Structures are given as C-alpha cells and as structure tokens.
Request: fold
Amino acid sequence: MELVRTFADARSFYRGLVALVPTMGFFHEGHISLMRSARLAADTVVVSHFINPLQFNDPSDLERYPHDLERDMGMAEEAGADVLFAPPRGEMFPREPVTRVQVTGLTERMEGVTRPGHFTGVATVVTKLFAGLQPHTAYFGRKDGQQLAVLRRMTMDLSFPVTIVAHPTVREPDGLALSSRNIFLGVEDRPSALELSRGLMAAATAAEAGERDGRRLEDLVLQSLVSAQVEYVELVSQETLERLDQLDRLALLAVAARVGETRLIDNVAFDLVGGEVVADRGVRLDRTSVLYR
Ligand code: AMP
Reply:
C-alpha cells in the first residue's frame, strides 16, 4: 500500500477500475467493510483519510475528533487498500475555498436541522475528492443514510461519472452501530446508547410483519428511548428524504439522540425484495470492535 499526500501521486498508482472509499480516519470495522467490498470489485482501491473541517459545525467536535494515521495505515493495508490518500490541509485547500456545493431540500431536515452547513461541507469535499481522485466508483456506509441520499443526488445533479455503492451498517455484537465517536461513550453510557438500535430493530420486525403506519413505526423507536435524549425519529423516503405517513416505498427509519456529550445517529433501511418489505438491519460483529482494543 502506498501512503500519498497529493491527488496527482494517488492517481499515479492507478490501474483499471478505481474505487474510492472516503473517510475521516480512525478506522473501525465499518470502514474496513467498505474497503473489503471495494477490494472485491475494483482493480485499485484508494482510501481517502481527511478530517474535513468544512463539515464540522461545532469547533469542539472537530478538535476532539480522533486521529491516528499510523494505526489506520496498518488497518487499511490489511483490508486490501492500494493507496491511502492522506492530504495535508494545503493539498485540499491551497487557498481558503470560496466555492461550496449545496444540495438543497434533502439537507434541510433531520441532521441538517441540528448541524447547519454540515452537508454542504460533506458535498464540497466529496466533490473535491471526485474531481481530484477521479474514481469510477465510491463506497459509502448506510449508517449515514441521509449523507448517502445527499451524495447520490449530488452525483446525479452534477453528472459525476461515479457509481455510488452503499454498504450495510456494521454493528457491535449488542447492536450499537459503529462510529469513531463511540470511543467517547463510557461503560455507564452503554445502556442508553443501545436504546437506539433496540428501538430500530423492534420497528424493523413490526414492518416485516406488516406494519405500514409511519407514526406507529416511529413510536416503536421513541418508546425505547428512555434515557437517551431524542432529537428526531423519522420515517422518510430513501431517495427524497420526505417524511412518509405510510411505508409504501424504499424508506429509511432514522434516529438521532444524545447520550451524555455524545450525539448518536442510526437507522434501518426498508428495501423491497420481490415486492416484500425487507429491513436492512446491518451486520453484527461477532466480537467487540477494534475501537476498544
Ligand atoms: P467517516 O470516517 O465517519 O466519515 O465514515 C466514512 C465512511 O464509513 C462513510 O461512508 C460512513 O457512512 C461509513 N461508516 C461509518 N460508520 C459505519 C458503520 N458502522 N457501518 C458502515 N459504514 C460506516
């Protein structure tokens, strides 16, 4: 695996079909599974490793975001990455950027309410990665369901010749969705953190058993949020993110809640397989994440 600092260096190692896995580093099995999927499908796997300052609306969140390139290099290499692109700030922003990519509508609800400007930061930097790294495909986690919808729409609207590939959410054995921010959760926070996935799993079971009422599915999640402080629970269209009264198309049941100082998001996606609603509950690890080792 090559560690590179510039877009041009990254491209110099390409051959064949190029898959990009954009990340902010501090890898866990969620990132690793994206890299492994990319490895199976592409000739060259490039992983970007950049803590994007534009997507942090809270400066203290940016300041404490975990960073360990040395640790991440070993993990990316083992997952089969060919190129780890870890640009210094000056490569990403040679001058203070005055250009932004703004996706309207989809970004104005859910995460967009608590994190104004967040998705513009994400869309702007992913645009730069697409332009500078010129991948054929790009891999994103379903864990960030709204981000995935926003980036799919951006890719279509701007005619980027990049195929977006979505990957299921990777979870701890107890159901907690992996996130680099989970390292900030104390053992005492764990029961509250688990309320999110537990509620989502109950709603997934209900939907597969025939429940189609949006409010009732949302209530199943709300009922499980006893000690986590709920921000939103919404059943939305996977594509437009509009709220759904009825589960009658591809949908996302998404939740955000605070546990102590840590903000957690999670979701289950409802897909249609042969006309049946099938919940994507993600995949569970059979042992505790590398985040705690
Ligand atoms: P991040 O480094 O948090 O920006 O995440 C980089 C990519 O990994 C994004 O596409 C995320 O959606 C994805 N990702 C993060 N956590 C998970 C997870 N638990 N399961 C699957 N993908 C994830």
Notes: The chain has a mean pLDDT of 97. The first strand starts at residue 2 and ends at 4.
